[in-house]
Each structure stands twice: as structure tokens, then as C-alpha cells.
Amino acid sequence: MVGILPYVRMSLAVVLVALSPLGAQAQDAFKEFKQLDTTTKMPKLNAFIAPGTAPVGSKLHDVALEAKLTGNGDPVEEGLSWYVFNPVAGADGKLPLVASSQGGSADFQLAAGDYFVNVSFGRAGITRKLTVPEEGLVDRQTLVLEAGGLLLNAVSGTDVRIRPDQLSFSIYSADVREDGERGLVMADVPPNTVVRLNAGTYHIVSEYGEVNASIRADIQVEAGKLTEATIQHKAAQITFKLVSDTGGEAIADTAWSILTAAGDSVGESVSAFPTMVLAEGEYSAVARNKDKIYQRDFKVAAGKNVDIEVLMKDVQPAEPVAAATTVQLPSGSASPDQPVSGSGALPSYDQLEGAANSGEDSD
Fold this sequence. Notes:
Elements: E1 8-13, E2 17-20, H1 24-30, E3 34-35, E4 48-49, E5 60-68, E6 80-85, E7 97-103, E8 106-111, E9 113-121, E10 124-132, E11 141-144, E12 147-156, E13 160-161, E14 167-176, E15 182-189, E16 193-198, E17 200-208, E18 213-221, E19 225-233, E20 235-243, E21 255-260, E22 265-270, E23 275-279, E24 281-289, E25 292-300, E26 306-311, H2 349-362
Parallel strand pairs: 1-19, 3-16, 5-11, 12-19, 20-26
Antiparallel strand pairs: 1-2, 4-7, 5-8, 6-7, 6-9, 9-10, 12-13, 12-16, 14-15, 14-17, 17-18, 20-23, 21-22, 21-24, 24-25
């Protein structure tokens, strides 16, 4: 993997971590992975010096910069972004950019004075103050990033592979702020993508599909190492069909609602073959077609991708036009066998009790 060769490989499945040294085959395999925030290696001439940042006639000094993932590691050769700032803010309140470079190690020519030097490696970065003397040579500056890499993936159940386009990850800081939220580091990270991060613990949220299959985990990133995390989703992909007979053709123009056991709606669709990813649990599939409603209860088991057929014979009773009402008959107005039109107020408890007492007295 470009820029990841110094890493030691780690493997994680449901917060189970194992370490193994990088072999030649493993290093070659890393080259196939995509990376975020990667810059191509640039020649030294790519270093940019902002015009007008050095006083006219001032003596320029050669400044060589390099960065390492760990203190005892080798210099990073690719994927670095260097920025040199003047420590005095400008009129806009921002620090003026003096020089920049992309690639590996950087060489700048700077006038005597103080500067802030920032180097980033993906989402990992560090800033250091640099002082260039009036006379003499400037020693090579080495910045230690204390950074590692994180590569995320997920399976359904124990080993069912999930299509990459159905997965996404969000990376948050492990610390919870005063408002109860975590700081977002990176959102919508695709699977099999190396993310470069400062060493530390991160809170990972994995989303499978677009309904309710989500899982969280705290993962440790170590400096100079690549952490590979495979998260197990307790979910499955379900396809729904409304059919006249078992195994029959799906009925078109069907509106679907998927309800939890508690009656909460988690998904809706208008399609002959809707497919949804659902978390493990019990559900009801409600199909509406030509003013008729059909329903079937079903269970979702982790990693068991299945088709759910709702038979048209599973029709539900039509909803009543109006709720039934109880009518109080005036004395002598009609016999119990005669139809009654209209509606009246329901009798009170006192009225019912009085009627019962009058019946007892008549006996």
C-alpha cells in the first residue's frame, strides 16, 4: 500500500485484535486497497514558496523536513502534505501561508524567523514551531506523527459477505462532548479503504443498507500499525413478493410497509420485488394492492438472506366505514326486534343502575 509500508498489520473481527508482521506478500496486497486523502509522490521542485513572504534582500536558509509514523520508524516517502505558516496572523485573522509541499520529505528555503510547520498524513497530523537562525545551518527537522492506519469491512452473520455498495462507516472520536455527542472524524467511509489516523481509540458506526441495520464498536489504532477491523452485522437482506400461489409471479404495483413486532414502521416501498436489509428480529410485511391488504409475519436471522412471499389469500379484513355505536331506545318507542335509525348518547352508569333497580321493584 502506497504510504503504508511501515505499518505492521493488525486484524480485528468483532473487537478481536491480532498482530502479525508485514511480509512481502502482505505488502503487495496492500497496494490493491484504495486510500483516502492520498497525494501522489512529488519531486522536490514541487515545494511552493509564497511570493512576498520573505523580506527583500534577506538571506534564505535551506530547511529539510521529514516525517515518521513512529520515532524509530523510517521516513514516510509518499502521501504527506507540508504547510509552513507565519506565526503572526494577517488582517483576516488567519496565519499567512509561507510555503507548502506534497509528497514525501520536503526542502524549503526560508528567511530567518519563526514559523509553524504542519504535516498531515491523511487524517493524521502534527504541528511544530520552527526557528530559522540568522546565521548557520538548520538541522534536518524530523516530525513524528504517531499515526497508524484503519481498514474497515463487515460481514452479515458469521461469514456472509456484504456488497461494498451496501456498506458505509463513520469514524468518531471516542470522547463524548458535554452535549452528549461525539466528534465526527470522517463520514461515509467505504469498506476496504485505508484511513490514516493519529494513534488512539475511535468509535466506529457501521451501516448495512438503509433501514435499521447498524452496529457500533470502539477500535484502537496504534502508531505504525494497520488495524483491519471486520464487524459482524446481525442482519440479513430480505426480498418481498406478493403472489397468488406459492412460487408464483410477483404482483406489480404493490405498496409495501414493513413493521416491527411493536408496530413501528421501518421501511416502505412501491415495487414488485422490494429488497431491504433488516436487523435481526420479528416483523410483519403488509402489502397493499387494488384496495386490498395482505399481511404476513416473519423473522429475520443474521446472515440468512431470504425471499418472503405474501400470498393473496392472506387478505386482511376490510376496515369498517364507521365505528359501531350503542343506541339508547326511548321507552315504548320501538321493540327490540325493530330496526332503529339514528344514534343517541350512551347511557350513564346511574341510568343503567336505575333501570336495574326499577326492574327489581317490578318483580
